[in-house]
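ok trying this again, last paste got cut off
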Amino acid sequence: MIKSINPANEEVIKSYREMDGEEISRIISYTQSDQLNWMKTDFAGRAAKMRKAAAVLRDQKDKWAAIMTVEMGKPIMQSKSEVEKCAWVCDYYADNAEKFLDDEIIETDASKSFVAFRPLGIVLAVMPWNFPFWQVFRFAAPNLMAGNAGVLKHSSNVTGCALAIEEIFREAGFPENLFRTLIVSSKHIKEVIENKSVSAVTLTGSVPAGKAVASIAGSVLKKTVLELGGSDPYLVLEDADLERTADTCVTSRLINGGQSCIAAKRFIVVEPVYKKFEEMFVEKMRSKKMGDPFDASNDLGPQARNDLRDELHGQIVKSIAKGAGLLLGGKVPDGKGAYYPPTVLSNVAPGMPAYDEELFGPAASLIRVKDEQSGIKTANDSSFGLGAAVFTADIERGERIAKEELHAGCCFVNEFVKSDPRLPFGGIKDSGYGRELSAFGIKEFVNIKTVYCK
């Protein structure tokens, strides 16, 4: 059985029977049948249903948000914002998919030559628990609009969210089996990838999970897009607006309980303003309230699971043992629930988990550097490359650093890193490859087909 457990009180929400191999194959067969018909539907027909999905999300926002909050502990107002963002991505691709996938005429010696973008078929999505709706919709909206179908292997602790998303697409009028959830453990992923009807795989998750899935997919020559971990550096320069910068950094670090691949993790501050920034940052972290995620006045709910909270705490303890200073938090609260307080470490250096690894929770690493160049070097001293940000009053300076110096897929100036349907999203190095969202994302899982006529 697969169990969903409320991280706020450790009570079992619901148990689900795991599907066996025969049921998995049957669902994929049904999905393939619906996809073959769906790909013949014109863009106007697809868009009408996708806009309906956006309406279903908005009209029942409280219902969907509550499922997220009870299953993984996200503060309720953040859950509602996540639902709104999912509706946005549905509308965005309903409005733009046809333009993005229009034939591209190429002048050659042919009487006519062009590039056409045709659907691949079924895309398997292996998705994480931290943004249980958004991670799925940012995959599903472009792929369904492109004429593909989707099968979802979601994290076991958010099975209720997975089934709710399936319900949303059906309520919006999509073919019954065009988007299906597979209630299975990770041990079944290999057989799903190897199923001849599955054309490609997208995964958001850990580096080990990404490597495992890419290896299986590669062995059967199926394309993958991977969005993996991140240890995002935020570089604070001497001319930054420190009040605004500290606010932005704290917001980024604590969004979703700090459980975000693109949350700020390492705060790299130049010597002239380090002490002042440290003081402001610690006080702003201290002011954040932790508690019941259904209480809208709380900034922080529990972590998604006890084991994840304990793993984070272990990284903190090891970092302190190696010389990091504890400025705030760092203690597991008494009582039930996977709670962990806002935590700040100073004197973070190479060799510490807080420097070398991803801290997936409300824990921040403060790193003092001499100047801009040493800050850039430190920012890039990571196996990850998902997001990065730089804070400076000189916009041209910030743009230069973001464009030329920082090694990451998403580089922001004077703002925290976030995903946006209009912009490509993804990383480099151990943060994965491929892109989601924007025109780039919808073209990841299509056949980019050359047509030559003479």
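PB: full thing came through this time. The chain has a mean pLDDT of 98.
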